[in-house]
């Protein structure tokens, strides 16, 4: 291992200790393994305005972890972070030993719950 690689690895370990969740995330792999992993979790709230009114809210959660720690993780595998269940939608490229994984809420293959019905003054009841 080169001196540069060793310094980067040490820096990554410090970053993980400083920013990682207090409790480990659990990778629920297809072979039945439940592996604890230290991750840096992010759940952004990115609101995008639409011309002529309206907005779109993007809430795609993600985490970054050491690539070696998440070996065997595949798209649609489940991840438990802070007692919430997510599933993997995208595994990014290995970026010098650290990988970013994009998630979706809930279990894979489960349909999104229907929007609640609310009354409308104009049309009676309608979907939200």
Describe the fold and architecture.
The chain is 13% helix and 41% strand. The chain is mainly beta. The strands form 3 sheets. It has a 7-stranded antiparallel β-sheet. A two-stranded antiparallel ribbon has the order 4-5. The longest helix is centred in the N-terminal third of the chain and has 17 residues, at 3-19. It starts with a helix and ends with a strand.
Please give the share of residues in helix: 10-25%
SSE string, helices as H and strands as E: HEEEEEEEEEEE
How many strands, which pairing sense, and closed or not: the largest β-sheet? 7 strands, antiparallel
How big a fraction of the residues is strand? Answer: 35-45%
Strands in their spatial order, largest beta sheet: 2-1-7-8-9-6-3
